[in-house]
């Protein structure tokens, strides 16, 4: 039986930190839909070209290692999928965008439709097959505008 109060606090803190870490890890890279953000193209400082269908707006920070991997994945995806645009915003330089989109961690990717409505969002490094499957209807014209 543990009788030292300091040791009890330490064990409780470690247990809580472990539980929080496991939850964050399990949610990393998962896609969420149904967000209400809008104006994605304006937040990125650009307007969609005639062929642009989906904006992948990545919010990153300079010290974020997963942000670099996310940028690589999204740059490659936008290069091979016509209609996909990738823009990266440094939240240290543009905290207003993070506030506007209620982003609490980096990397976070928010996908916007051509009309600027939020399509989905991913916190952590995206799972590319899931992301591609989710945006594919927008690229082929079979999904809503």
What does this structure look like?
By secondary structure, the protein is α+β, with helices and mostly antiparallel strands. Helices cover 43% and strands 20% of the residues. It is built from five helices and five strands. The chain has a five-stranded mixed β-sheet. The chain is elongated. The mean pLDDT is 86.
Assign an overall shape: elongated
Strand order of the largest sheet: 1-5-4-2-3
What is the helix/strand order?
HEHEHEHEEH
Strand content: 15-25%
Q: What is the terminal-to-terminal distance?
A: 63 Å
| Helix content bin | 40-55%
> Tally the helices: what do you get?
5
Task: Please report the total strand number as a whole number.
Answer: 5
CA radius of gyration is 18 Å
Classify the secondary structure makeup into a structural class: alpha+beta
* Major sheet description: 5 strands, mixed
What are the segments in which pLDDT stays under 50 over at least 5 consecutive residues? none
Arithmetic mean pLDDT = 86
